[in-house]
């Protein structure tokens, strides 16, 4: 395999071996601490334009299957791993990771001490740009430094047009900010008749469909870049229809109800943090992926109740409106990749819709 | 033959949702008191109170209402309505928002008796009814404000609610008579 380099904007270069596509790419470098689920991770649109460093040292050993895609066309900019294995004995495997990355023109680089790299990234301020390149020369660094990271991620990955995902059950409108398929899968398992709307939909567009419930999806980037229109939509819709929001949707739900957000010093992507469910005082685990968190002190307690909290970093992980059946979680309740124990939030959503009917 | 229609997880979720709905409807927990109807309603009432405590850090008074002449699992005398005693309640309900909690809402006669017993204690600001299961077949104009699950049933069927505090598990089952 060809020798390639991961270079970072601080001038450091890491030599490794290329796999997947031979493309030269640049993007924000982030760390993923999950032990499992590289396929779901690499295809999740929250990683749009990002180069993902995997802490788990062996990646590729279950291949790629056709049940675990989280998007049709993944748009991550690269994978950085310690060891990549192209031998898979998993019965679901259809392709090797290498073949899959070639199909989607995503480069990978292996032979990197990813745990060392992740420690180093934690000490660096703010988003760190990086590139996967063939030659780590001055030209490559100039190119990297000239790269401007986009803040229009949602526009680039979310659907521009409405589409249906019909079934015979509850009528659910999903607002797409770059949704992962896990959300649609959970709604399908519950027989929901889904209409996916672009994130620019107005409250009237939503209400015209007369839904039983509305779901605000996950998505990439900063919720602060999406403008006031979407917050206005959320405020109007939550007063009329049961609402469930996940990830970026949760952050927008918080903003719409007067809370403030702060960028985390280091984005957190993993599933090892215990999360306390306050109402029953028990612990769950879930896959988390966040660059922002709701500032606990900014929550207006007359409007919102904090429902989940991360016990490691103290971040707010769930909110609920005091006056309406509207609730949100920061973590990925669809459980793709697992843990699966928060999937019953979708049952909670179903039951909120049923209760509304009386 | 018994069929589980609400499992332990679903029962937890139902009580959680009812708790949030109580907060929504009452605009908070001020002046709330919760009265559980014996036997299983008492445990459900305590679970709701414990959830409110977790969320709002407020201790909501919980009391027991005792049914003296009627039990759901004994063939009852069709000519006599159940009698409910509020003798064990040692706090005032006057001016309070009372949440009555029962496991199964059926004819509505127990609830009517419970409301009379509460009214005898004082004049509450309001009375709301929370039930885990509404099985239909009302004989009085009574409806629940908070319902865990609607289970349309035949009168020949028996709805059995188990709670882990006194039974071996949390579940709602339907049994064919």
TrEMBL record, chain A:
UniProt keyword Iron present: no
Biochemical pathway: Pyrimidine metabolism; UMP biosynthesis via de novo pathway; (S)-dihydroorotate from bicarbonate: step 1/3; Amino-acid biosynthesis; L-arginine biosynthesis; carbamoyl phosphate from bicarbonate: step 1/1
Pfam families membership: CPSase_sm_chain, GATase
Active site as annotated: 334
InterPro entries listed in its UniProt record: Anth_synth/Amidotransfase, CarbamoylP_synth_ssu, CarbamoylP_synth_ssu_N, CarbP_synth_ssu_N_sf, Class_I_gatase-like, CPSase_GATase1, GATASE
Highest taxon listed in the record's lineage: Bacteria
Gene3D superfamilies with a match to the protein in the record: 3.40.50.880, Carbamoyl-phosphate synthase small subunit, N-terminal domain
Region annotation (CPSase) ranges: 1-170
Ranges for domain Carbamoyl-phosphate synthase small subunit N-terminal: 2-133
Top-level EC class: ligase
Annotated EC: 6.3.5.5
Record's catalysed reaction(s): L-glutamine + H2O = L-glutamate + NH4(+); hydrogencarbonate + L-glutamine + 2 ATP + H2O = carbamoyl phosphate + L-glutamate + 2 ADP + phosphate + 2 H(+)
Annotated positions binding L-glutamine: 219, 221, 248, 291-292
Cross-referenced SMART domains: CPSase_sm_chain
Classification via PROSITE patterns: GATASE_TYPE_1
Keywords from the named record: Amino-acid biosynthesis, Arginine biosynthesis, ATP-binding, Glutamine amidotransferase, Ligase, Nucleotide-binding, Pyrimidine biosynthesis
Subunit-structure text: Composed of two chains; the small (or glutamine) chain promotes the hydrolysis of glutamine to ammonia, which is used by the large (or ammonia) chain to synthesize carbamoyl phosphate. Tetramer of heterodimers (alpha,beta)4.
Function: Small subunit of the glutamine-dependent carbamoyl phosphate synthetase (CPSase). CPSase catalyzes the formation of carbamoyl phosphate from the ammonia moiety of glutamine, carbonate, and phosphate donated by ATP, constituting the first step of 2 biosynthetic pathways, one leading to arginine and/or urea and the other to pyrimidine nucleotides. The small subunit (glutamine amidotransferase) binds and cleaves glutamine to supply the large subunit with the substrate ammonia.
NCBIfam families, sorted: CPSaseIIsmall, PRK12838.1
Family: Belongs to the CarA family.
Protein name in UniProt: Carbamoyl phosphate synthase small chain
UniProtKB/TrEMBL annotation, chain B:
InterPro entries associated with the record: PRTase-like (IPR029057), PRTase_dom (IPR000836), PyrR (IPR023050), PyrR_bifunctional (IPR050137)
Example of a GO MF term: uracil phosphoribosyltransferase activity
Domain of life: Bacteria
Entry's EC annotation: 2.4.2.9
Membrane-spanning segments: none
Positions of the Phosphoribosyltransferase domain: 6-152
A Pfam cross-reference name: Pribosyltran
Keyword flag Ubl conjugation: no
Protein name: Bifunctional protein PyrR
Source organism per UniProt: Levilactobacillus tujiorum
């Amino acid at each position: 395999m060809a020798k390639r380099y991961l270079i970072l904007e601080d001038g450091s270069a890491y030599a490794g071996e290329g796999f997947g596509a031979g493309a030269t790419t640049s993007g924000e470098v982030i760390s993923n601490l999950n032990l499992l689920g590289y396929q779901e991770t690499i295809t999740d649109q929250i990683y749009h334009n990002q180069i993902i460093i995997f802490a788990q040292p062996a990646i590729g050993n279950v291949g790629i299957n056709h049940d675990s895609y989280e998007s049709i066309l993944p748009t991550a900019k690269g994978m950085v791993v310690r060891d990549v294995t192209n031998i898979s004995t998993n019965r679901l495997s259809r392709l090797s990771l290498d073949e899959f990355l070639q199909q989607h023109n995503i480069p990978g680089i292996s032979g990197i001490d990813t745990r060392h790299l992740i420690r180093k990234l934690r000490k660096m301020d703010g988003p760190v740009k990086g590139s996967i390149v063939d030659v780590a020369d001055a030209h490559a660094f100039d190119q990297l430094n000239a790269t401007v990271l986009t803040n229009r991620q949602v526009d680039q990955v979310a659907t521009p047009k409405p589409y249906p995902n019909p079934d015979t059950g509850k009528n659910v409108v999903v607002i797409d900010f770059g949704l992962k398929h896990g959300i649609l899968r959970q709604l399908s398992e519950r027989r929901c008749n889904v209409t996916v709307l672009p994130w620019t939909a107005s409250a009237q567009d939503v209400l015209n469909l007369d839904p039983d419930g509305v779901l605000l999806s996950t998505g990439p980037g900063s919720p602060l870049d999406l403008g006031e229109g979407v917050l206005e939509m959320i405020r109007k819709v939550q007063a009329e229809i049961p609402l469930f929001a996940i990830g970026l949707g949760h952050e927008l739900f918080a903003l719409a109800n007067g809370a403030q957000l702060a960028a985390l010093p280091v984005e957190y992507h993993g599933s090892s943090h215990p999360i306390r469910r306050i109402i029953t005082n028990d612990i769950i685990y879930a896959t988390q992926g966040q660059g922002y968190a709701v500032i606990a002190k900014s929550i207006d307690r007359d409007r919102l109740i904090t429902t989940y909290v991360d016990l490691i970093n103290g971040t707010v992980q769930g909110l609920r409106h005091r006056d309406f059946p509207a609730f949100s979680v920061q973590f990925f309740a669809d459980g793709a990749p697992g843990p699966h124990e928060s999937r019953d939030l979708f049952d909670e959503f179903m039951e909120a819709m049923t209760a509304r009917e009386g | 033959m018994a069929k589980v229609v609400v499992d332990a997880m679903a029962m937890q979720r139902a009580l959680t949702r009812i708790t949030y709905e109580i907060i929504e409807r009452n605009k908070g927990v001020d002046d709330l008191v919760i009265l559980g109807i014996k036997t299983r309603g008492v445990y459900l009432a305590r679970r709701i109170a414990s959830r409110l405590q977790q969320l709002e850090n407020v201790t909501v008074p919980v009391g027991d209402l005792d049914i003296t002449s009627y039990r759901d699992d004994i063939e009852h005398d069709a000519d006599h309505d159940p009698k409910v005693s509020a003798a064990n309640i040692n706090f005032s309900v006057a001016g309070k928002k009372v949440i009555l909690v029962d496991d199964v809402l059926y004819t509505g006669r127990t609830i009517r008796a419970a409301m009379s017993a509460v009214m005898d204690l004082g004049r509450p600001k309001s009375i709301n009814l929370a039930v885990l299961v509404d099985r239909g077949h009302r004989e009085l104009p009574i409806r629940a404000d908070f319902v865990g699950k609607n289970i349309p049933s035949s009168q020949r069927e028996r709805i059995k609610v188990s709670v882990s505090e006194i039974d071996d598990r949390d579940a709602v089952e339907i049994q064919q008579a």
